[in-house]
Amino acid sequence: MRRTTNDFDKKHIFKIYRYQLLPVDRFVQGNLFDNYQSIEDIINKKNIIFNEILVKTPIKDTGNILIEKRLIESENFIISRYAVKRHITIETENFTETELNTWPSFLLCFWNAPDKQYILIEENKKAYQDCKTIVNAIKGTFYKKLHDSHLNIHIEPLFEEKFFWDIIHKFDGQITSMKFEMVTPNMANISHMLDEDLKVAAKALNSQTTNLEFNSDSNAYLKIDDKNKMVQSLVSYASQGGGNITVKAKGIKRKIKTTKTVKTITFDEFELTTDISNLPHLIRGLLS
Fold first, then answer.
1. What are the extents of the domains in the chain?
2. What superkingdom does the record give (predicted)?
Protein backbone atom coordinates (compact mmCIF):
# COMPACT_ATOMS: atom_id res chain seq x y z
CA MET A 1 0.00 0.00 0.00
CA ARG A 2 1.33 3.42 -0.93
CA ARG A 3 1.33 6.18 1.64
CA THR A 4 -0.47 9.33 0.60
CA THR A 5 -0.09 12.85 1.94
CA ASN A 6 -3.30 12.41 3.93
CA ASP A 7 -1.80 9.43 5.77
CA PHE A 8 0.61 11.85 7.39
CA ASP A 9 -1.73 14.84 7.71
CA LYS A 10 -4.30 13.22 9.98
CA LYS A 11 -2.99 12.86 13.51
CA HIS A 12 -4.41 10.84 16.38
CA ILE A 13 -3.59 12.28 19.79
CA PHE A 14 -3.76 10.11 22.90
CA LYS A 15 -3.79 11.45 26.45
CA ILE A 16 -1.78 9.35 28.90
CA TYR A 17 -3.00 8.38 32.37
CA ARG A 18 -1.69 6.02 35.01
CA TYR A 19 -3.86 3.94 37.31
CA GLN A 20 -2.91 2.46 40.65
CA LEU A 21 -4.76 -0.39 42.32
CA LEU A 22 -4.84 -0.07 46.11
CA PRO A 23 -6.43 -2.27 48.77
CA VAL A 24 -9.55 -0.74 50.27
CA ASP A 25 -8.26 -1.55 53.77
CA ARG A 26 -4.70 -2.73 54.39
CA PHE A 27 -5.54 -4.00 57.86
CA VAL A 28 -8.47 -6.33 57.26
CA GLN A 29 -7.90 -9.52 59.23
CA GLY A 30 -8.76 -13.07 58.30
CA ASN A 31 -9.60 -14.89 55.09
CA LEU A 32 -12.49 -12.73 53.91
CA PHE A 33 -12.21 -13.35 50.18
CA ASP A 34 -13.03 -16.46 48.18
CA ASN A 35 -9.85 -16.78 46.14
CA TYR A 36 -7.26 -14.88 48.17
CA GLN A 37 -5.55 -15.66 51.44
CA SER A 38 -4.70 -12.14 52.63
CA ILE A 39 -4.39 -8.48 51.68
CA GLU A 40 -0.82 -9.19 50.58
CA ASP A 41 -2.13 -11.89 48.26
CA ILE A 42 -4.61 -9.43 46.74
CA ILE A 43 -1.88 -6.81 46.25
CA ASN A 44 0.38 -9.35 44.56
CA LYS A 45 -2.41 -10.47 42.22
CA LYS A 46 -4.01 -7.06 41.64
CA ASN A 47 -3.20 -6.97 37.92
CA ILE A 48 -4.53 -10.48 37.40
CA ILE A 49 -7.75 -9.45 39.15
CA PHE A 50 -8.02 -6.29 37.07
CA ASN A 51 -7.32 -8.14 33.82
CA GLU A 52 -10.20 -10.54 34.50
CA ILE A 53 -12.47 -7.52 34.96
CA LEU A 54 -11.14 -5.70 31.89
CA VAL A 55 -11.67 -8.69 29.61
CA LYS A 56 -15.31 -9.12 30.64
CA THR A 57 -16.47 -5.55 31.27
CA PRO A 58 -17.01 -2.88 28.60
CA ILE A 59 -16.95 0.73 29.73
CA LYS A 60 -20.33 2.28 30.53
CA ASP A 61 -21.14 5.98 30.77
CA THR A 62 -24.32 6.96 32.59
CA GLY A 63 -26.60 8.95 30.29
CA ASN A 64 -24.78 7.94 27.09
CA ILE A 65 -24.95 4.90 24.83
CA LEU A 66 -21.51 3.37 24.24
CA ILE A 67 -20.70 0.46 21.96
CA GLU A 68 -17.39 -1.41 22.04
CA LYS A 69 -15.35 -3.19 19.38
CA ARG A 70 -12.58 -5.21 21.01
CA LEU A 71 -9.42 -5.01 18.90
CA ILE A 72 -6.56 -6.45 20.97
CA GLU A 73 -6.51 -8.66 24.03
CA SER A 74 -2.97 -9.92 24.57
CA GLU A 75 0.44 -9.24 26.14
CA ASN A 76 -1.04 -7.14 28.98
CA PHE A 77 -2.89 -4.95 26.47
CA ILE A 78 -6.64 -4.50 26.20
CA ILE A 79 -7.41 -2.17 23.29
CA SER A 80 -10.92 -1.30 22.14
CA ARG A 81 -12.62 1.17 19.88
CA TYR A 82 -15.64 2.79 21.49
CA ALA A 83 -18.38 4.77 19.76
CA VAL A 84 -20.82 7.03 21.57
CA LYS A 85 -24.26 7.99 20.29
CA ARG A 86 -24.58 11.67 19.45
CA HIS A 87 -27.11 13.76 17.51
CA ILE A 88 -26.45 16.29 14.77
CA THR A 89 -28.82 18.67 13.01
CA ILE A 90 -28.51 19.07 9.25
CA GLU A 91 -30.30 21.22 6.69
CA THR A 92 -32.19 19.41 3.92
CA GLU A 93 -32.89 20.23 0.29
CA ASN A 94 -36.38 21.30 1.42
CA PHE A 95 -34.90 24.13 3.53
CA THR A 96 -35.82 22.35 6.73
CA GLU A 97 -33.73 20.86 9.49
CA THR A 98 -33.59 17.23 10.52
CA GLU A 99 -31.78 15.40 13.29
CA LEU A 100 -29.52 12.44 12.60
CA ASN A 101 -27.69 9.97 14.81
CA THR A 102 -23.91 9.89 14.61
CA TRP A 103 -21.40 7.62 16.35
CA PRO A 104 -18.03 9.36 16.81
CA SER A 105 -15.42 6.91 18.07
CA PHE A 106 -12.15 6.79 19.98
CA LEU A 107 -9.52 4.21 20.88
CA LEU A 108 -9.09 3.20 24.52
CA CYS A 109 -5.94 1.32 25.53
CA PHE A 110 -5.09 -0.37 28.84
CA TRP A 111 -1.51 -1.52 29.43
CA ASN A 112 -2.03 -3.71 32.46
CA ALA A 113 1.57 -4.72 33.21
CA PRO A 114 2.37 -4.31 36.95
CA ASP A 115 5.17 -1.82 36.26
CA LYS A 116 3.22 0.18 33.64
CA GLN A 117 -0.52 0.49 34.38
CA TYR A 118 -1.20 3.04 31.65
CA ILE A 119 -4.48 4.15 30.12
CA LEU A 120 -4.31 5.86 26.72
CA ILE A 121 -7.41 7.72 25.55
CA GLU A 122 -7.71 8.99 21.99
CA GLU A 123 -8.94 12.57 21.78
CA ASN A 124 -12.11 13.07 19.74
CA LYS A 125 -14.09 16.12 20.75
CA LYS A 126 -17.03 14.95 18.68
CA ALA A 127 -17.29 12.03 21.10
CA TYR A 128 -16.27 13.76 24.35
CA GLN A 129 -15.11 17.32 24.91
CA ASP A 130 -12.83 16.23 27.75
CA CYS A 131 -11.09 12.88 28.25
CA LYS A 132 -11.68 13.35 31.98
CA THR A 133 -15.29 12.31 31.34
CA ILE A 134 -14.03 8.98 30.00
CA VAL A 135 -11.74 8.61 33.02
CA ASN A 136 -14.75 9.07 35.30
CA ALA A 137 -16.69 6.49 33.27
CA ILE A 138 -13.82 4.01 33.68
CA LYS A 139 -13.75 4.52 37.44
CA GLY A 140 -17.53 4.21 37.67
CA THR A 141 -17.59 1.04 35.55
CA PHE A 142 -14.99 -0.80 37.60
CA TYR A 143 -15.74 0.55 41.08
CA LYS A 144 -18.03 -2.21 42.34
CA LYS A 145 -16.21 -5.10 40.65
CA LEU A 146 -12.88 -3.97 42.12
CA HIS A 147 -14.44 -3.38 45.54
CA ASP A 148 -15.74 -6.94 45.45
CA SER A 149 -12.06 -7.94 45.37
CA HIS A 150 -11.21 -5.32 48.00
CA LEU A 151 -9.45 -2.99 45.56
CA ASN A 152 -9.76 0.68 44.58
CA ILE A 153 -8.63 2.25 41.33
CA HIS A 154 -7.02 5.70 41.24
CA ILE A 155 -6.39 7.32 37.85
CA GLU A 156 -4.17 10.38 37.38
CA PRO A 157 -2.76 12.06 34.26
CA LEU A 158 0.91 12.17 33.37
CA PHE A 159 2.40 15.62 32.81
CA GLU A 160 5.78 17.12 32.00
CA GLU A 161 7.79 18.20 35.04
CA LYS A 162 8.97 21.16 32.97
CA PHE A 163 5.39 22.49 32.93
CA PHE A 164 5.39 22.73 36.73
CA TRP A 165 8.80 24.38 36.96
CA ASP A 166 7.91 26.83 34.18
CA ILE A 167 4.96 27.94 36.31
CA ILE A 168 7.16 28.32 39.38
CA HIS A 169 9.72 30.41 37.50
CA LYS A 170 7.06 32.49 35.73
CA PHE A 171 5.32 33.43 38.97
CA ASP A 172 8.39 33.57 41.19
CA GLY A 173 7.68 35.94 44.08
CA GLN A 174 3.90 35.66 43.57
CA ILE A 175 3.03 32.12 44.69
CA THR A 176 1.05 32.00 47.92
CA SER A 177 -0.14 28.37 47.95
CA MET A 178 1.00 25.00 46.64
CA LYS A 179 -0.92 21.77 47.18
CA PHE A 180 0.16 18.21 46.38
CA GLU A 181 -2.55 15.52 46.16
CA MET A 182 -0.76 12.18 46.06
CA VAL A 183 -2.00 8.62 45.58
CA THR A 184 -0.43 6.24 48.10
CA PRO A 185 2.21 4.49 45.95
CA ASN A 186 1.71 0.88 44.97
CA MET A 187 4.16 0.63 42.05
CA ALA A 188 7.84 0.13 42.82
CA ASN A 189 9.06 1.75 39.60
CA ILE A 190 7.57 5.15 40.51
CA SER A 191 7.25 4.94 44.31
CA HIS A 192 11.03 5.25 44.72
CA MET A 193 10.64 8.90 43.70
CA LEU A 194 8.81 9.69 46.95
CA ASP A 195 10.38 10.35 50.33
CA GLU A 196 10.54 7.08 52.27
CA ASP A 197 9.00 8.54 55.45
CA LEU A 198 6.01 9.79 53.47
CA LYS A 199 5.43 6.37 51.89
CA VAL A 200 5.72 4.56 55.21
CA ALA A 201 3.36 7.00 56.94
CA ALA A 202 0.72 6.76 54.20
CA LYS A 203 0.64 2.97 54.36
CA ALA A 204 0.84 2.82 58.16
CA LEU A 205 -2.13 5.19 58.39
CA ASN A 206 -4.15 3.16 55.85
CA SER A 207 -4.36 6.20 53.58
CA GLN A 208 -5.54 6.06 49.97
CA THR A 209 -4.38 9.60 49.20
CA THR A 210 -2.18 12.14 50.96
CA ASN A 211 -2.52 15.91 50.67
CA LEU A 212 0.37 18.24 51.44
CA GLU A 213 -0.44 21.94 51.34
CA PHE A 214 1.94 24.85 51.80
CA ASN A 215 0.62 28.37 52.38
CA SER A 216 2.53 31.59 52.89
CA ASP A 217 1.56 34.46 55.16
CA SER A 218 -0.81 36.92 53.46
CA ASN A 219 2.04 39.43 53.30
CA ALA A 220 4.66 37.01 51.96
CA TYR A 221 5.23 34.36 49.29
CA LEU A 222 6.41 30.77 49.14
CA LYS A 223 10.09 30.18 48.46
CA ILE A 224 10.13 27.27 45.99
CA ASP A 225 13.59 26.14 44.95
CA ASP A 226 14.00 23.63 42.12
CA LYS A 227 16.99 22.22 44.02
CA ASN A 228 14.83 21.32 47.03
CA LYS A 229 14.94 17.51 47.11
CA MET A 230 11.58 17.08 48.83
CA VAL A 231 9.79 19.25 46.27
CA GLN A 232 11.67 17.52 43.46
CA SER A 233 10.51 14.11 44.65
CA LEU A 234 6.88 15.20 44.97
CA VAL A 235 6.87 16.77 41.51
CA SER A 236 8.56 13.75 39.91
CA TYR A 237 6.10 11.31 41.48
CA ALA A 238 3.06 13.42 40.56
CA SER A 239 4.27 13.84 36.96
CA GLN A 240 4.34 10.06 36.49
CA GLY A 241 0.66 9.75 37.32
CA GLY A 242 1.10 9.68 41.08
CA GLY A 243 -1.06 12.70 41.80
CA ASN A 244 -1.62 16.32 40.91
CA ILE A 245 -0.41 19.74 41.98
CA THR A 246 -2.35 22.98 42.43
CA VAL A 247 -0.63 26.36 42.58
CA LYS A 248 -2.13 29.73 43.56
CA ALA A 249 -0.33 32.92 42.56
CA LYS A 250 -1.17 36.46 43.63
CA GLY A 251 -2.90 38.37 40.87
CA ILE A 252 -4.13 35.19 39.15
CA LYS A 253 -7.80 34.45 39.82
CA ARG A 254 -7.80 30.80 38.83
CA LYS A 255 -5.69 28.15 40.47
CA ILE A 256 -3.15 26.53 38.16
CA LYS A 257 -3.51 22.74 38.04
CA THR A 258 -1.20 20.16 36.50
CA THR A 259 -4.28 18.09 35.59
CA LYS A 260 -4.99 20.66 32.87
CA THR A 261 -1.84 19.73 30.93
CA VAL A 262 -2.03 16.00 30.30
CA LYS A 263 0.94 14.40 28.55
CA THR A 264 0.16 13.06 25.07
CA ILE A 265 1.54 10.81 22.35
CA THR A 266 0.63 11.09 18.67
CA PHE A 267 0.23 8.55 15.87
CA ASP A 268 -0.50 9.25 12.23
CA GLU A 269 -3.40 7.71 10.35
CA PHE A 270 -1.19 5.21 8.56
CA GLU A 271 0.16 3.75 11.81
CA LEU A 272 -3.33 3.08 13.16
CA THR A 273 -5.02 1.81 10.01
CA THR A 274 -2.33 -0.35 8.38
CA ASP A 275 -2.01 -2.94 11.15
CA ILE A 276 -3.71 -2.24 14.46
CA SER A 277 -2.04 -5.32 15.96
CA ASN A 278 1.22 -3.34 15.88
CA LEU A 279 -0.15 -0.70 18.25
CA PRO A 280 1.17 -2.35 21.46
CA HIS A 281 4.65 -2.38 19.92
CA LEU A 282 4.37 1.33 19.08
CA ILE A 283 3.15 2.16 22.59
CA ARG A 284 5.98 0.19 24.19
CA GLY A 285 8.49 2.10 22.11
CA LEU A 286 7.12 5.44 23.29
CA LEU A 287 6.40 4.67 26.94
CA SER A 288 9.04 2.14 27.99
1. 5-158+262-287, 161-260
2. Bacteria
